[in-house]
Amino acid sequence: MRKDSDQREDAMTWDDIWTGDSLQKLSEIEPGSIDLAFADPPFNIGYQYDVYDDKRAKQDYLAWTEQWLSAVKKTLKPNGSFFLAIGDEYAAEMKVRLDALGMTLRNWIIWHYTFGVSCTKKFNRSHAHIFYYVNDPKKFTFNPDDIRVPSARQTTYADARANPAGKLPDDTWVLRPQDSEEHFSSEKDTWYIPRVCGTFKERTGHPCQMPEAVLERIIRVASNPGDTVLDPFAGSGTTVAVAKRLRRRYLGIELSTDYAEAIRERLATVKPEFKPEPPKPKLSIPRGPGRKRTMAAGYKPR
Questions:
Q1: What's the pLDDT at 175?
Q2: How far apart are CA 75 and CA 26, in angstroms?
Q3: Ramachandran angles phi, psi of 256, nearest 5°
Q4: What superfamily does domain 4-267 belong to in CATH?
Q5: How many CB atoms lie within 10 A of CB 128?
Q6: How far apart are CA 57 and CA 75, in angstroms?
Q7: Can you name the residues that pair with 117 across neighbouring β-strands?
Q8: By percentage, how much of the chain surpasses pLDDT 70?
Q9: What is the pLDDT of residue 221?
Q10: Whole-prediction pTM value?
Q11: C-alpha distances in angstroms, 85 versus 2, 35, 138, 229, 246?
Q12: What Cα–Cα distance (Å) separates residue 25 from each residue in 16, 60, 84, 199?
């Protein structure tokens, strides 16, 4: 006899956008079925969404937050990962609640962006927080080779001792628009990635759009092709669009009917890409007889 959970999983629709309240829709997801979740919830600072009130009483907002955080955790596999983007106002409260759920913090990432909010009575804001949590600190997906960047030993010092594959990014992510079309050519643990502004080709019309560069790094490092990726606040659809491009199964939840339809239109333009074979490392060839041998050529001094 089939279990109810088996029947429920068969009824799940992947590679889809569900329209409706996130709490209700999260309860419809098979528990333990998601490999990676990314959430960029409303910051409760007064953004003008079409159907959501982003200026709720603090206690009401935090009570709602506790509910959806718990619901997201239930969807994760035992080795699942969760990334959460949030502003200064509620970063500390988010961390306290994630800790209370029994998840383990791997990194508190700072995303440093350009085109930030211009202030007159305080320093201009140019960053957001991204929490990286896992269910099991000893068993989780982490693909370091998929996100390596050139190290200072390579780019600045031309040090022969540098790992030719590069290094892992730091936990502040910085990306200058001129760096590369691949989003990350160097930098560290401040993710310096410009916000998606009105003149950017990537812009969809949503008031709070995440850049694809941020989601590409997250999805590459914390999931594998064929894994399931969840975004409970799909917004402009960046998470699901990148997930589709990187050949992950995806599920987005969006309250707004108009935003959900815009996401579907965006997804229709996305084609899955196939990762090319990594280039073979360049090997130094020993010089002929009578010429100086180098450490790069395999010579080891005695």
A1: 57
A2: 8
A3: -80, 130
A4: Vaccinia Virus protein VP39 (3.40.50.150)
A5: 22
A6: 28
A7: 125
A8: 73
A9: 97
A10: 0.78
A11: 39, 18, 23, 16, 21
A12: 12, 20, 18, 34
* Measured CA distances, 47 to 103, 121, 256 (Å): 29, 20, 14
- Cβ atoms within 10 Å of 278's Cβ, excluding its own: 9
Burial of 196 (0-12, 13-18, 19+ CB in 10 A): buried
Helix (H, G, I), strand (E, B) or coil at 107: strand
- Please give the angle made by the CA atoms of 87, 91 and 97, to the nearest 5 degrees: 140
* Cβ neighbours of residue 284 closer than 8 Å, sequence gap 6 or more: 294, 296, 297, 298
Confidence of residue 164 (pLDDT cuts 50, 70, 90): confident
Query: Is 98:37 a contact under the CB 8 Å cutoff?
Result: no
Pairing type for strands 104-117 and 125-134 reads antiparallel
For the cut 60, the answer to whether the pLDDT of residue 298 exceeds it is: no
What pLDDT was estimated at residue 160? 76
The DSSP element (H or E) to which 133 belongs, if any, is: strand 125-134
Angle subtended at Cα 102 by Cα 100 and Cα 108, rounded to the nearest 5 degrees: 80
Which contiguous run of DSSP H or E holds residue 39? strand 34-39
DSSP 3-state of 34: strand
Q: Which residue has the tokens 């955790």?
A: 73
**What residues does each domain of the chain span?**
4-267
Q: What's the rounded mean pLDDT across residues 242-261?
A: 96
